[in-house]
Amino acid sequence: MLRPGDMAPDFDVPVLIGGVKKQFRLSEQRGRQRVVLAFYPLNWDPVSAQQLIAYQVEREKFTARQAEVVAISVDHIMNATAWEREIGPFDFPMCSDFWPHGQVSREYGVLRQSDPFAGASDRAIFVIDKAGKIGFCKIYPVNQVPDLEETLEALRRS
User: Which helix (H) or strand (E) holds 46?
Assistant: First the structure.
């Protein structure tokens, strides 16, 4: 897994923002804003739903810190589209690390090798500063929603 101080690997993946499919390239955020890269195992998972809904509810706390939450899972973008219609809408990007399968998760060291959810992402948070360096990273149990206050504190420190 990557560590604080490492450059965040760039990636270019399909993304859903407010129900609209686009492309997302991490390097385009450099110099503009900080990124909270929130890996989650799968769409349609109740804990993942709680996590993403919490990001939407608390969105102003992130934008006040010049940060954007960027959610990412290995599910296909069309799967994310259907899921967002059910539990959203979300104003933050939902990235699809579907093809090549789990490549971004693998580069960040959070592709699960064992059950539950083998082949999916760990539930992990990476706070990336405006220069593209990782300031904070943590893997959480798959059945636990990441602590928002911990993430907000990491943003304050970076």
Answer: helix 46-57
Asked if 113 contacts 123 with a C-beta cutoff of 8 angstroms, the reply is: no
Q: What is the DSSP string of 47-58?
A: HHHHHHHHHHHT
Please name the residues in contact with 136: beta carbons below 8 A apart, sequence gap of 6 or more.
4, 125, 126, 127, 151, 154, 157, 158
Top-confidence residue, 117 or 54: 54
Q: Is the peptide bond before 14 cis (omega within 30 degrees of 0)?
A: no
The alpha helices in 58-147, defined as continuous H runs, are 59-63, 77-87, 103-107
What is the torsional sign of CA 23, 110, 82, 60?
Answer: negative
Within 8 A by CB and 6+ apart from 41, the residues are: 48, 73, 112, 116, 117, 120, 121, 122, 123, 142
Residue 74 · residue 93 · CB < 8 Å: no
Q: In the structure, what pLDDT confidence band is assigned to residue 131 with cuts at 50, 70 and 90? A: very high
Nearest to 58 by CA among 147, 156, 154: 147
Q: In whole angstroms, give the CA distance from residue 16 to residue 87.
A: 14
